[in-house]
Every structure is written in C-alpha cells, then in structure tokens.
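To the structural biology subgroup,

Please find below the input and predicted structure for ATP-binding cassette sub-family C member 8, which we are adding to the shared reference set this quarter. The sequence is reproduced verbatim from the submission form. If anyone notices a discrepancy with their own records, reply to this email rather than editing the shared folder directly, so we keep one authoritative version.
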Amino acid sequence: MNAQRHLDRASSMNEKIILKRLLSSSSVKSNVFQEEKLLVHRLHSTASETSDEEEIVSWNLTSSNENREYGEIPLKAYWTYFSECGLFWLSIYIVSTVSWQVLRIMTDFWLTKWSEDKHANEQVFYYLFVYALFSFGSICLSMVSNCTGQTAGARARYQLHNSMLENLLKCPMKFYETTPLGQIINRFSNDLSIIDKKIATSIQRLIQFFLMCVSAFIVNSIVTPWFLVFAAPICVVYYVIQKFYTCSLRELQRLDSIARAPILSHYSETDTGLETIRAFKQQETFTNVFFHKLDCHTNVFYIINAGNRWLGIALDYLGAVVVFIAILVSLVSSTVFPHLVTPPLIGLAINYTLLLPIYLNWIVKFLSDIEMYMGAVERISDCSKLPIEDYNSEAEVPKNWPLRADIRLEKASVQYDSSQQPVFTNLNLTIPHGQKIGICGQTGSGKSSLAMCLFRMAPLQEGQVFIGDRNISTIPLRRLRSCLSAIPQDVIMFSGTIRDNLDLRKEFTDEEIWHCLELAQLKKTVSEYAGELYGQVKEGGENFSAGERQLFCLARGILHNTTCLVMDEATSSLDADTEKTLINAARSAFEKKTVIIVAHRLQSLLDCERIIVLESGKIVEDGSPCQLLAKPGGVLASMLRATQSTK
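Predicted structure (tokenized):
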C-alpha cells in the first residue's frame, strides 16, 4: 500500500505541470516557455474526504503521450487548409466578396449624392432605380459569396477527414499500441468539429469585416484625410493587443486539446471495463478519477474564457477612443472646410466611424480564433502524414500464389522498440504445407509475435520469412493478408447483415456462403436467425456469443479460400465444448491446408501433428505431442502437469 501511495504521489506531481505561464508579456516573444508547477486543485463538489482517495485518483494527465507543439502555427497549416478548399472555389469566393463590398460602398455614396442633389425630387425614379440596382447586385453577390465560401469549407473538411482516416487505417500496429485511444478520438471529434463548424465561417467573417474596415478607412480618408494621422498608431495598438492575445490563446488551445484526450481515454476505457469495475466495487474510484481529469480540463477552459473577456474589455475601450477621434476630426474638418466637407459626407463618415470599432474588434477576435482553430488543421495534417505500411507495392506476384502454404523463417528477429529487448532473435522454423501445428509457451515468450510475423504486423529487424517459397517482404500487404486467415481472441463483427460480415464486396453467391456456414457449423444458427443471411448484426456482434463470433470468423476464412489459418489465443475465452467445436470445425474445413494454433490451454494442442514450445523467444522443444510428453523433464510435460495440478 505504501509503494502504491508513492507511485500515485509521483503521478500527481506530473499532473501539476499541465498549465503554463501564458498571460505574461514575455510569453509573447518566446516560442519555448518555461514550465511552471501550478497546482490544480480539485473542485469542492468533487473533493474526496480522505487523503487516501486523493492519492488514488491522482492519475497522470500527461499519460496521453501527446507531443505538445510550441510557438506560432506554421504557415503550412494555412496552406494545407486553403489548398484543400480548391483554387476554383476560393477564386470565386474572393472575387464575389470584394465585388459585394465595392457595391455596398457605391450604394452608400449614391445615397450621399442623392441627398446632396438639389433637384433630386425631379429625378426620384432615376436615383431609386440605380439604388435598387446596386442593392440587388449586393444581395446576389452576398449569396454567391456565402455559398462559395461554405462550399470551399465543406470541400476542405471532407478532404482533411478522408486523408486522415485513410492514413490512420494504414498505420502500423505500433502506432495503435503506443497512442492512447483518447488522442485518436479527439482528432475525429473535437478537431474535426472545429474544422466542420468554425473555421470556414470564421474565415468568411474575417474577410468580410476586414473589407468593411478597409471601406471605413477609405471613406474617412476621402472625407477627412487627417483621420489617417490618428488611425496609424491606433492600428498599431490593435496589432499589439491581437498578437499578445493570440500567443496566449494559441498555447491555451493546445493545452485544451491535450487535457481533453485523457478524459476521452478514461471514458472509453471505463466503458470497456465496466463489468470488472463493478465486480471489484471500484465505481467511486473511477468516478473520482474522471472528475479529477475533468477538473484539469476545466481549469484550461476557464482561463480561455477569461482571456476572451479581457480581450473584449480592452477592445471596447480602444474602440471608444477611435470613435471619439474620428468624430472630433470630422467636426473640425466641417468647421474649417465647410465647402469641401458637406453635411451628407460628414454623416456618411460618422456612420462608418461608429461601425469601425466593431469591425476592428471582430477582426482581432477572428484573427485570434482562426489561429487557434488552425491548430486543429495542424494536428489533423500531422495525422495524415504518419508513417504507414507499404500497401501500394508494385511487386508482381503470380495470380495463383501461394499454391502451397509452406512457411519458413530464417534467422528471424523481432523487436518492437529499440529501448526494449528483442522478442526473439535468429529464429529458424519450417512449417510444411498442410501441417497442423500448435505453438505454446509462457506469457511473453513470443507466441503471438511469431504469428504476427506472417502478416507483417510485427516489425522484422533481421532475417526473412517465406510463404510458398517467396519472401513476404516482396508481397504487397493487401495480397499477403488476403491469403491468410486469422481468428483472434476478440472477434469484432460490424453493424449490418450477416452476409455483409462474411462477404462485404459481394463476391460470392448465397449458395457458396451457406456451404461455408455449414463447414463452420453455423448453418443451423443462421437458418434459425431472423432474416437468415440478411439478419441484422448489432454493433460488435453483441447479439452473438463469443464462440459464434469465432465461428463466423472461421467461415469468412473458408469463404475466401485462404491457404493458411492462424488461431491466436482464439479459444482462451471459450468454454470447453465451444472450444472443441471451433477446433474440430477448423481442422475439417482446413484439412489440406496449414493451421497454426497459438494457445495457453495445452489440452487444445494435444491433437496437433506438431507442437513448438517457446521460451524467451527461443524454440526449446519441437516435435509431436507424444514425443514431447514422453520426454523426461520435458518443458511441455512439466507445463501440462502444472496446469492439471492447479485444477
């Protein structure tokens, strides 16, 4: 218990560094910030009554292993987003938006001219017609601008989503073993939500307000040129405030993304292990852990909103100064130059001036928001560039490969990470075609890694693996994996029909599928199911038992006529009768093909033609079950005796 407390206390200390010193002037100029240990207090409503509970719920927020970026968002993130929008739609949007704003200015000047004309009453129809023409043009251009802007945004989010999804589906297994689930969920939920709902609209509004602001400056410059003397330093102040705020908000948004991932991971893991949590009565512990992680995220969220309020107050005060100066300059100009600055022009200038602070405020806000949102584009772009497996190999492979599933490993070595010990080294193994072979050993002996080598899912550091006398490193991954079947411990079935789960590409007839179901001993089960082949499968196949899901996986392999079947701990969660049914079905369906069974239960391997015993990545025994069991002091015999003695 004391050791556990020390571990929990150490993890709690790690959590204290999640927040950075962000709202200081020095943070604006520095791209790398000094970390500061800022204690994150639990909310009073979720505080535990005892110190023991506080130690238990102190889980490390930084366990997400998400690399945090510092400094400004790189220009390549903007380039990525705008390139995905499409040049055609962007061009139409920019032209229509600029034309729309020009027409708005012309409309206002036309009204000014109308009010100055002493003979306007005699030409009402003329002025009204031109005004209506300008207004109609503005409305049409406004519709074109909004439609093309949203179309460009929709194209960008579609391309970014598909690019990330396609890349993640091709990532090696190491990525999924080292990347927390919450981080991946965060990309598809929060980051994509920002791109879907906020970026396109924010960019549209920014461009509109920028053009309005430029229009206001142009109008004021025409009416009262002296306004530019005061406008220049005011714009500099706006720029300084914007940069200061953006720098802080950018880092806070990155922290928000990092702090959100552990919440999603914890929720997903808790949902998966709900039965175990309830069995050990740990509901309160996991609830406290969730609230603790939520508190950390809430701290960041609170500071983001506080920063927004600070920006609003600062810009409101500065906007009041702009309005005062603009009105003062207009009034002085009309007094000094009454013939040049007419009352209608003063009214037009004041009208634009009153809106100028609003435009500037929104420009600053949208500039900051867009830079903050571009962090989502940066993260998604990074996911789209992760190293992937070589799916698109152009190596030529005979159409009938492999005719025989002769498997040969020559001095094969597997090491998942350079900081870890190799799983096995210099392993030599030959499995003739059609042999039924069992692989056993203690946990960590390399059983599953050996099976994964055949699918190129385990990184082969040295040596070679041959199937059908061909080095599998020269075989395109899609082709290689389509020639092998696997029955894992946890079989996943997808939502849809039974037929879809067996033949998604509609390559086989119903008769062929029924024949495979019969070989897999599922024909009776499916024929009694509502809808038969077209019966609905719930998410994860929860309307079928674990054994039935394993048999469906076997039926899929039979249907696709693969030459080798790999059963990786497939029977570990099954009862004895279901295990016997599965193994018998596999042997009869793959009678003349290679079957590799990886198992902890030694009883399920005794009917194999050959058994290999692994220990620390090395083959310590190899032979038929009778030979190995008769061997004095044999490893298999001792393992079997130990298993029987525990029953």
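Summary notes: The chain has two domains: 75-383, 407-645. The longest helix spans residues 283-336.

Regards,
Lab coordination
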